[in-house]
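In line with agreed milestones, work has continued on tokenised descriptions of protein folds. One protein thus recorded appears below exactly as we store it:

>
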Amino acid sequence: MNSTELLDVAETAARRGAKCLLDWVDEFRVSEKGRADLVTDADFASQKAILNHISDCYPDHNMLGEEGLNKQDGDSEYRWVIDPLDGTSNYVHGFPYYCVSIGLEHQGELVLGVVYDPNRDEMFSAVQGRGATLNGTPIAPSRFLSLDQAMLVASLPVGVTGRDIAIDRFLRVLPEAQTLQRTGSAALNLCYVAAGRIDGYWSSNLKPWDMAAGVLICREAGGAVTSIENAEFTIENPSILATNGTNIHVALQALLTETLF
């Protein structure tokens, strides 16, 4: 298929989904899928807008989305992986760090990704083998070499407790980094690694739709993506470590995989 056409469809779908998010800002209702795991009317409205546009263009393509979307037509080689609102808790609280994320697989391989931040009007995009861009301008990771120079971000599980391994890892890295944050949007975190705004990001609790687009964008920009345990990365594995690809990657892996007390 024509990659330029696919990218245009993805970017248009992302903008339509994001418009729903902005339209619902003062109108949404919130419910919990689990403890501290929020979903809003805006999530569903955004997913419907995205699904409608992609389905109009490619009615035979498969779809996987956060809000119960799982369309499988066995003959198609394509699957869209959609997060209509990555950063729902931020959205609910009016914290402007959330986005729409749309990835595309061909025969199980990531070939396209877009992540759109409607608050900054920033469209991160990548097509396999063609690099990554922000609003059409090529991006690349930072070149910092050590943790004491690095700005890092981590995701913590929804409803995390003090005994969780994620807390141990966070505290282990904290004194070694120049700064360590928790932001609430995996997709944007991956794009920020790609664009050199942060130097590393990790999580052990993501879903395919959280990272499909961001992983391709990060890799195409020149970043490194593995599992925390240094295994080959797949979007079905909730463990991810994404960095600028310098010694920071190796240093973080060593810290994150130390034997726990």
